[in-house]
Write a structure and sequence with these properties.
Elements (H helix, E strand, L loop, with lengths): L12 E5 L2 E5 L12 E5 L3 E5 L6 H10 L4 E6 L5 H4 L2 H8 L3 E3 L9 H8 L18 E2 L5 E3 L4 E6 L8 E5 L2 E5 L17 H14 L3 E4 L8 H23 L6 H8 L8 H17 L3 E4 L7 E4 L1
Parallel strand pairs: 4-5, 5-6, 6-7, 11-12
Antiparallel strand pairs: 1-2, 2-3, 3-4, 8-9, 9-10, 10-11, 13-14
Helix pairs in contact: 5-6, 6-7, 7-8
């Protein structure tokens, strides 16, 4: 993967592929890298993917990028605030509908739906846009025509139950599912390890040429990145099992044992990733939880 060497300037519309411009939002951070990449497809008849956070400055930059165009549709990959919170205000000014898979809980796996309904402490919610409601819903395989092109909708749950990617020819707008700068967070009940791996296998079979994620630079070798992500999840699972071989432990104890050099501010996210693996292992009969799967359960090998 050839990665951009320097951070792009926020608020500037930059060509990243023929007919595709990127506008970076001013929301850098440990979970967003340089910030949110909003994409403008087309010049006179356009679609906008992930308007990003609720930022007046970013909204103004996006509106400037489409000032001479008709905006046909505003697409949201998933209902995290760094992707969706700015959608409603931008779409109102642009005069276009907001389309997505559905509200935040839409697409949640059966395993995670049970987990959320169990009464367990499920306080993950990393940036979930709880109020997000699209004007219309999209489904896997749908086509979106925006005048200058046509997108294929690809449902790829894992990071988020209702996570969508959008394919324009052999270019895939991969949202948070595949990024080049980092692995994606999988946090129950919104994220699911089994779904993530199944989505990786499905994307691997597509053989797209280029991924444009919503954080970080383009991914120029998608197949290699997908293979690495799957191998990484297998390694993380092995580390979780190795930690439990020392005796029963909580998710945060396991996270501290595995992520020894992680900054303290990221330990919560690391713990959520561990919890996702524990729930997956529980479903496969490899581990058990006392009293039941939750943030603060004690886990042990079966």
């Amino acid at each position: 993967m050839a990665l951009e060497a320097e951070k792009p300037a926020p608020g500037v519309a930059v060509d990243v592929a023929p007919g595709i411009r990127r506008v970076l939002a001013p929301n850098p951070g440990p979970m967003t890298h340089w910030g949110t990449n909003s994409y403008v497809l087309g010049r006179t008849d356009v679609a906008v993917i992930d308007p990003g956070p609720d930022s007046a400055a970013h909204r103004a930059a996006l509106l400037a990028a489409v000032a001479d165009a008709r905006v046909h549709t505003v697409l949201v990959t998933h209902a995290h605030r760094d992707h969706s919170a700015g959608a409603r205000a931008f779409a109102a000014e642009a005069g276009a509908p907001v389309l997505a898979f559905g509200p935040p809980a839409a697409g949640r796996s059966a395993v995670m739906a049970r987990f959320a309904a169990s009464g367990a402490n499920t306080a993950g919610g990393e940036g979930v846009d709880a109020e997000f409601r699209p004007d219309g819903t999209l489904w896997d395989g749908a086509r979106i025509d925006y005048g200058e092109g046509s997108l294929e909708v690809v449902h790829c749950p894992g990071h988020f139950g209702g996570h969508l990617a959008f394919a324009l020819g052999d270019i895939l707008f991969s949202g948070d599912h595949v990024m080049g700068w980092s692995t994606t967070l999988i946090s129950p009940p919104d994220g699911d390890v089994a779904d993530f791996l199944a989505s990786c296998a499905r994307l691997r079979a597509r053989a797209d040429r280029l991924y444009l994620p919503v954080h970080g630079p383009p991914v120029t070798d998608p197949a290699a990145r997908l293979d690495w992500l799957v191998a990484h999840r297998a390694e993380r699972e092995a580390e979780v099992l190795a930690a439990l071989s020392q005796g029963p432990a909580r998710a945060d104890d396991i996270a501290r044992a595995i992520y020894r050099d992680i900054p303290g501010g990221l330990l919560k996210a690391a713990t959520r990733n561990v919890l996702a693996h524990l729930i997956d292992l529980h479903e496969r009969g490899r581990v058990a939880a006392a009293p039941a799967p939750s943030d603060d359960a004690s886990w042990h090998l079966v």
